[in-house]
Design goal:
It contains twelve helices and four strands, in the order ααβαβααβαβαααααα. The protein is α+β, with helices and mostly antiparallel strands and 248 residues long.
Length: 248
Amino acid sequence: MTNPVIECLANHRSIRKFRPDRIEPEKLDLILHAAIRAATAGNLQPYALVVVDDPARLEELELRSAPAALFALVDQFRLKRWFELSGAPFYNDQAVNFLVSYWDATIALQNAVVAAESLGLGSVYLGTVLSQNVQETLGAPEYVFPAGLVLLGYPDETPPLRPRLPLEAVVHRNRYRVPTDDEVRAFYREEDGRYEALPEETKAKLREKGVTNRAQQRTIGHYTEAFIRGESEAILAGLRRAGFRLGG
């Protein structure tokens, strides 16, 4: 049993090559209206969506590969202003407020992605936005922090669907069940096979770095400890810069 919404979700793929055509304003408005209809805690919508579709701004932000970018931001600044104007206290700079805002922002962004894909557009998420200084790049005030970023546009490629883990690898029934070593190996058998399918020349170069399997390719060869540490330090600096008190 299926329907157009499920078909759209099941056929999601990241698009990294876009046609230069600009997104029609009416389509962009539909996408944004779908985004703000997302579920939100207390109906407060503690997030901001920043649309960047000016070519000069996209170039400045090094997002030139797509005709539009959509930033989702944690936004407790707007709530703070409302509270202050209403004589209400503000203490939404703490961990629960940040995490709920982050949750709401990413739910809204995913709504936008589904809406865009239903209209024939393609998208790709860029995770490096989390370490971006949005106070500098977007002129954001205090209590604003990046939650997500997608590029949007008409696809100029049709990549194959990427494999996903089997359902039993990620779905637990009624409580978390710790898998056995053999089960974990089975979950990642297809992923491990992708390393084995690499050209021998590529594997030889990886072996020079100490990489002999797919998991090592992801850590030693790509998401290195230095990269993860650098991104993490930038994220923590961004949280401090925005004024969130995640330590209590």
